[in-house]
Amino acid sequence: MDKEVVLKKIQEQELLLLKECIKLCENNSIEYFALGGTLLGAVRHQGFIPWDDDIDLGIPRKYYDKLIELLSDNEEVVLEKNIINLNVLQYKKKENIQIGSESYSVYIDLFPLDGAPNGKIARKVFLTKFLLYRVLYKFSIIDKLNIVDRGFVGNLVVGLMKKSKIYKILSSERLVEKLHKIAATYSFDNSDFGGNILGRYREKEIVSKKIFGNSKLLKFEDIEIRSPEDYDGYLKHIYGDYMKLPDKKNRIAHFEEMKSKE
Questions:
Q1: Angle ∠(34,39,43) on CA atoms, nearest 5
Q2: In whole angstroms, what is the distance from residue 115 CA to residue 138 CA?
Q3: Among 120, 203, 242, 253, which residue's beta carbon has the most beta carbons within 10 A?
Q4: Beta partners for 104?
């Protein structure tokens, strides 16, 4: 089936999940922020990035457990840990959707927002320690990764690590537990810096708390979502010139990326 048709159907289902999640947050005074490509889509396209279907929300950790408890009451969805993505929780439809001959999972990613040390050197040490454990964790699950579409160097590293069997001596459960423990060391509310340390952009995800500030409402498809107050500063910090569209060869839908890398 045509990729654009598949993408549109997945986006429609994810938007329904997003609406449910936002309604719960608003009704229970739970603070949240659109992050990453979701925020980029809201600012640049007033909705989904046209070629993407990724939805990321960040929730300060003090609200995180409360939201998870509320979401767990919906019998039509499940909360599932994404082992490839540091056990970040996915709010996911219980049943995959069928589009043509293919079956697709529909979910949104829920990231806890944590603090980081205020001092520049202490923050660097903290993030370096976290990155080390993150690398070890990726090694521990390397047998679950596909080498497709990672580029020559990425494919080579993954292939060699699989052959070395080093991952067999690493405990992925202990490592990911340690990662989350490190991430939660500093309170988001009581720190001058913070963000989504578990996110794909690693240390770039940690920004001045002034950037988050008081959330703003931005149009996203037919609803409004909350964004960091200084969303321009956030997007520039992560993407640089974020209003510039990527080359067509780099416009990869999230569902295609996940199918090739997981």
A1: 135
A2: 23
A3: 253
A4: 97
